[in-house]
Amino acid sequence: MTTALLASALLLFASHAVPSWPGVRPALVARLGRPGFAALHSVGSLVTLALFVFAYAEAGGGMPLFVPADWAPPLVAALMPLVFLLLAARVTTRFGEPAAPNPPRGIYRITRFPGSVGLLLWALLHLQATGDGRRVVLFVTMAAIALFAMAKNDWLLRRSAEGRAFRAETSILPFAAILAGRQRLALAEIGWARPFGGLAAYAAMLAVHPLLFGVDPLWWLG
């Protein structure tokens, strides 16, 4: 683990947190316009991501911090399809704006923030299945980005009547609102295409994971 890796991780987090900080985004949109803000945000995110990837590669294997439990890799393989389903459903289901969210539908009946919950689950699963310093930095950074996004968006929801109504009908913890009777499970709204797409993306990731990251997620099968 190097100072460059830690610094690039902080920059990566800041590239997501600062532009979306309450008050900062509206000011930038007012000055740059929505296309200008989107371009600035995209470029900043890509540059900081590239710096992180470079620092990650230069850090080498990293110092071992702990030894993962034997059950950790199978748990990751078993639960990652859920991550891909959450992400696929988030991308293909409209949320609206934090100040005026659409009525809960599909995946939003299950969890208020499916994208962030998916990213957090991905980070936590991989964090307990690895042990070297540089990957711990990677997954802690991703978890921090997900937690910040949930906290920020939840704060924004509280600021409008529509947002407060959305919060009252949903939960961050998956299925909590359904179990509490504040929401109902409507699988028909999710459909078959989203789970199929999530599983297809998961299968593709299993195939390319050894090439991209040098680790076979199913190595424990022997």
UniProtKB/TrEMBL annotation:
Q: Which InterPro entries match?
A: NnrU_dom
Q: Where are the transmembrane segments?
A: 71-89, 110-129, 135-151, 199-221
Q: Under the cellular component aspect of Gene Ontology, which terms does the record hold?
A: membrane
Q: How does it sit in the membrane?
A: Multi-pass membrane protein
| Residue span, NnrU domain | 5-217
Q: Which UniProt keywords apply?
A: Membrane, Transmembrane, Transmembrane helix
Tell me where it mainly resides. membrane
Subcellular location per UniProt equals: Membrane
- Protein name per Swiss-Prot or TrEMBL: NnrU domain-containing protein
This chain's source organism reads: Azospirillum thermophilum
